[in-house]
Amino acid sequence: MINLYSVSNDLITRLRQNSYFEDTVLCCSFPKTVKPTLLSHPAIAVSVCSVNFDEASLGDNVMAGTVSVSADVFIPALLRNQISLDEFVSQICKSAAGMRIVSISCEKPQSNKYAECIEQKIIITFNDEICFEEQ
Q1: In Å, how far from its chain's centre is CA 90?
Q2: How far apart are CA 94 and CA 124, in angstroms?
Q3: Assign residue 11 a region: left if phi > 0, alpha if psi is -120 to 50, beta otherwise?
Q4: What is the pLDDT of residues 10-41, one digit of tens each?
Q5: Cα–Cα distance between 18 and 16 in angstroms, integer?
Q6: Which of 131, 122, 123, 134 is nearest to 53 (CA)?
Q7: Cβ burial 78-103 (10 Å sphere, 16+ → b, else e)
């Protein structure tokens, strides 16, 4: 079951369990604003980006469908020769395994000259029964 209240935190928990990300800042996304300092460590910001569902059972009010979660990766430019973006994406996929993934897509990596980092958006889509209540 996918709980909309916790799906982002569930993914972050799984990423934290992967020792590859021990020096990575993991957080829920926040509005893009100018940060007063530059990143000194890689970061992944996670948020729900879309939800599609239908009634899955007549009379039982059971909803099922897909939930897409965005994992925005930020790697400081000064670490770009030390960290493989491909390995980073691979480790995110490995960490999310077992969460009923139906698709993963990656946008083209981009350089952000203001934040002096490389950015890449990864969209992970899950499919299961959906819970809309906080537990």
Answers
A1: 13
A2: 12
A3: alpha
A4: 999 999 999 999 999 998 887 666 666 788 89
A5: 5
A6: 131
A7: eeeeebebeebbebbeebbeebeeee
Report DSSP state, residue 100: -
User: Phi/psi of residue 118, each to 5°?
Assistant: -100, 135
Using the structure block, give the residue that is written with the tokens 């729900």: 48
Structure tokens at 8: 């982002």
Q: What is the pLDDT of residue 18?
A: 96
CB atoms within 10 A of CB 36: 5
Instruction: Give the model confidence (pLDDT) of 46-83 as tens digits.
Output: 999 999 988 877 777 788 899 999 999 999 998 988 88
Distance separating alpha carbons of residues 50 and 18, to the nearest angstrom: 25
Beta strands in 85-135 (DSSP E): 101-106, 110-112, 117-131
Spacing of C-alpha 68 from chain mean position: 9
What does the pLDDT look like over 98-131, one tens digit per residue? 888 999 999 999 998 888 999 999 999 999 988 8
